[in-house]
Amino acid sequence: MRIIGHRGARGEAPENTLGGFHYLHHLGVRAVEFDVRQLKDDQLVVIHDDNFVRTTGQLQHVESCTLAQAQQFDHRHHWQAWAEPEYTPSLEQVMACLTDFEHIEVEIKAVADEVAAERLIVQLHQDLKGFEQTATITSFDVKILAALQQYQSHFKRGLLVEIPIGEYAIEFAHQYGCNQIGWKDQLATDEMIQRTQQADLEISVWTVNEIERAKHLQQLGVQGLITDVPTTMLQHLSL
Asked: If we measure between CA atoms, which residue out of 230, 184, 234, 203 comes closest to residue 8?
């Protein structure tokens, strides 16, 4: 089972920042998950929320910014002791930090409509060029997964599941050509994990920060453990 840093290592470093990704690399972890949104100038940035309030303290909507504007926001709002400023990174900047990573889960946040999905996918393929063997594109939004299918994307893709739809998730994953399901931890019952495995789909579970839970998932044969606290997992899991 691989340890996957959630938004870098969000329990130990500012989330979705270059500093956070370098921190994860320094730990020796070579698997990561992070979030992507598209700006009004088509550029892609790595950020979870649709605004900058929680991570920067600034009231601004992400998709109304250009890249130049987005990169003025410092994401140390809850990390005052973090020495270096952490400005909003572009996807291109983040990928440059991950050249020796073995597993990269690129979560695309929900978009307004099919046109927005197609626009995002075109830019995404430019920014991920060269990472075809290590990157998996994931999303809750089936508009994104459908756009990937229509684009005939050569990247692996995964369906993210946070509502209790049970085996329908497996049907959706197959429908949209996914090779992976990312289960929210509370939904990742032993039975659903077994059924997902029987459907020949890989599994990531998020967000797992408790050691005993992590050990149980490891025993079940889950491939990926997405965690806020990679240091803790490295100390307690036999990998």
From this structure: 230
The rounded distance, in Å, linking the Cα atoms of 199 and 180 is 10
Q: What residues in the chain have per-residue pLDDT under 70?
A: none
For the record, the structure tokens of 17 come out as: 């920042």
DSSP the chain: -EEEEETTTTTTS-TTSHHHHHHHHHHT--EEEEEEEE-TTS-EEE-SSSBSHHHHS---BGGG--HHHHTT-B--TT-TT--S--BPPBHHHHHHH-TT-SEEEEEEPP-SSHHHHHHHHHHHHHHTTT-TTTEEEEES-HHHHHHHHHTT--SEEEEEE-S--TTHHHHHHHHTT-SEEEEEGGG--HHHHHHHHHTT-EEEEE----HHHHHHHHHHT-SEEEES-HHHHHHH---
Residue 133 has phi, psi (to 5 degrees) of: -85, -20
Question: pLDDT for 124-136, tens place per residue?
Answer: 999 999 999 999 9
Tokens describing residue 238: 């036999």
Residue 53 identity:
V
pLDDT per residue as tens digits for the range 11-43: 999 999 999 999 999 999 999 999 999 999 999
